[in-house]
Amino acid sequence: MMKVSTILATKGNKLYTITPNQPVSEAIALLAKHNIGVLLVLAEEDKLAGIVSERDIVRQLNQQADLLNKPVAGVMTTEVITCLPQDDLMSVAHVMTERRFRHLPVMEDGILLGMISIGDVMKAQRDYYHGQIDTLETQILATE
User: Fold this and answer.
1) Where do the domains of the chain lie, and which CATH numbers do they carry?
2) Cα 7-10-12 angle, rounded to 5 deg
3) Global pTM?
């Protein structure tokens, strides 16, 4: 059974963050600079305050022309669903699919450990299944 910790071990735990008081224009600049789709919003003492995605910004920009100078706090999602390193990837994939989000912060005991994306989950599952196929092919060839 594959776990979230498997992805973090391979991917690493590089996090891209912003504070709630920084303007949305800075969030856009960070998203573009790092070619990513989401930023974690950290308050004092690196506590997770929210998450802000490209989609969050685009949806609000459609309604507020002056959004770029407003703080990230106005567009971020504050009820962030997280996962644990020991969570099963199939369960995580199910949650991400059902809740329709592409990124999931990994936390344990209130400490932010990393971030995984639906792409990370799908790649890990694909690699696992390829490994299973290779093992079965080797076993079949060995019995011939």
Assistant:
1) 4-143 (3.10.580.10)
2) 90
3) 0.81
